[in-house]
Write a structure and sequence with these properties.
By secondary structure, the chain is mainly alpha-helical. About 90% of the residues lie in helices and about 0% in strands.
Length: about 170
């Protein structure tokens, strides 16, 4: 019975090694994907930053256009109602609010881009996490291989015990 149990343990340990190696392989694939994704994210952020400068210029132009429309209310001799003035002032206020929002978003984006560029692909959260998963998976392989070696030793010990018992019976 001891040899049979030891052999069962070897079988389980072999399955454990295969599973651990599969996990390690999957972790390596995840790292490759994480690197690709991180590179893409950095490129997207830098591109968005370029576009944000255009958004800010557009918002600045909208403020100038709204201010010009307010000033132009009295040109041409047309009668100007208080509602006309209120609408034009509202247009200026809205344009200024949008400009403030765009500048705030651009500042946040600049900080995000700076952090991503500084960290680089290897320092990105997903790559760091993938590397940690590889280290854990590699440790799993080592542990399962040790378990397999221990199981083989247990088989050898059980077989030696059977031989000893048989020899004692023969004596």
């Amino acid at each position: 019975r001891g040899v049979g149990t030891a052999l069962d343990n070897v079988e389980r340990a072999e399955r454990g090694v295969v599973q651990a190696q599969k996990k390690a392989e999957d972790a390596q694939k995840s790292l490759t994907r994480a690197r690709k994704d991180a590179q893409e994210q950095i490129e997207d952020l830098n591109l968005a930053l370029k576009g944000s400068a255009l958004d800010e210029r557009g918002a600045e132009l909208a403020v100038r256009r709204a201010e010009q429309q307010l000033r132009d209310l009295w040109k041409g001799g047309q009668p100007v109602t208080p509602l006309d003035v209120s609408e034009a002032v509202l247009g200026v206020d809205e344009a200024k609010q949008r400009l403030d929002e765009v500048r705030e978003r651009n500042g946040d984006l600049r900080e995000e881009v700076d952090a991503a560029n500084k960290a680089g692909v290897e320092g990105s959260e997903q790559v760091v996490s993938a590397k940690e998963a590889i280290a854990e998976a590699d440790q799993g392989v080592i542990d399962s291989q040790k378990s397999l070696a221990d199981s083989h030793l247990a088989v050898a010990d059980a077989q030696a015990a059977v031989l000893d018992a048989q020899q004692n019976l023969a004596d």
